[in-house]
Design a protein that fits this description.
By secondary structure, this protein is an alpha+beta fold. It has one domain (5-47, 107-278): Bira Bifunctional Protein, Domain 2 (BirA Bifunctional Protein, domain 2, 2-Layer Sandwich). It is built from 9 helices and 16 strands. It has a 7-stranded mixed β-sheet. The protein has a 3-stranded mixed β-sheet with strand order 8-14-15, with no helix packed on it. A two-stranded antiparallel sheet has the order 1-2. β14 (241-243) and β15 form a beta hairpin. The protein starts with a strand and ends in a 12-residue tail after the last helix. The relative contact order is 0.17.
């Protein structure tokens, strides 16, 4: 395990020392990339309402990835039943009746942004950036590479079809220049999202017909960043529109570039070793 990494075995890391400083400097560089579009920084909570994710059919598409924020039903008898026995047995909480589950832990940073701008209309392209602690359940975990809880920085474009495609093209070039500056060996590859029962999901099939997601692979295996073109999917789901010259509004198009901060740490350590003196200059 590299110095500065604590691992609980359940998919969660603790960062400290030089590695934590490196993570902060990497994120500062991602924020500097976002400044090229004048992206507005936003900060969102850890939880997101299930009702917002239902707008994009998240729970049929990715039920296996979601981490549900469950609480005990608040009546005294239920809470008393919970405390009467052993609340935790072999590390597992023995829950009694649950209150309705109305929130999940954030699975992707940009979802908050679309919910925040629900029902709004824009006269020109808008750019935002945000960093969130995100959570996705996986079949297995690897420190820094595949985690239950991880850090995601995103830069998001809201605009027309042309504006979002221009953004992805420019963002791809900017990321390519950045990895070349760092000396990381990477390549872009077409990708699809990990849908539940993918072959039966029309959104997955659409991604195969009209590729909209590209992943930046380190070591031909680890996706450290991605670009995503959503067409007007989120615009329609959240009633976001782009004002036209005649005053009418059309569904907004969206696109984003996402960075998995811990995975960038893995790529740097994998390339240069865990001696900080050998790391490239980052965040200067």
């Amino acid at each position: 395990m590299p110095a500065g990494v604590g691992w609980d075995g359940a998919g969660n890391v603790t960062l400290s020392g030089a590695l934590l400083e490196l993570a902060d400097r990497l994120d500062a560089d991602f924020v500097a990339l976002a400044a090229a579009w004048g992206a507005v920084e936003m900060r969102f909570p850890t939880l997101i309402a299930a009702a917002e994710l239902e707008r994009i059919d998240y729970f049929r598409s990715f039920p296996h990835l979601a981490t549900y924020a469950a609480c005990l039903a608040g009546d005294e008898a239920n809470v008393a039943a919970f405390t009467a026995g052993d609340p935790v047995v072999d590390g597992a909480i023995r829950l009694t009746q649950l209150a309705p589950v109305r929130h999940v832990l954030t699975p992707a940073a940009c979802y908050h942004l679309y919910a925040q701008h629900r029902g709004q209309s824009f006269e020109g392209p808008r750019y935002f950036t945000t960093k969130c602690a995100c959570f996705r359940r996986e079949t297995h975990y690897i420190p820094l590479e595949r985690q239950w809880g991880f850090t995601m920085r995103e830069i998001v474009c809201l605009g027309t079809a042309q504006e979002t495609h221009d953004f992805v093209r420019e963002a791809t070039a900017a990321v390519d220049a950045y990895v070349a500056q760092l000396g990381l060996a990477t390549r872009w590859e077409l990708a699809t999202d990990p849908f539940f029962q993918a072959s039966k999901n029309p959104q997955y099939l659409m991604q195969r017909i009209d590729p909209t997601k590209h992943e930046l692979l380190y070591d031909d295996r680890l996706a450290i960043a991605s670009t995503n073109v959503h067409h007007d999917h989120f615009g329609r789901a959240f009633d976001m529109t782009r004002t036209q010259p005649d005053g009418d509004g059309e569904p907004l198009f969206t696109a984003c570039v996402a960075f998995g901060v811990e995975r960038w740490l893995a790529a740097i350590i994998g390339t240069f070793g865990d001696d900080e003196s050998s790391w490239p200059v980052i965040g200067a």
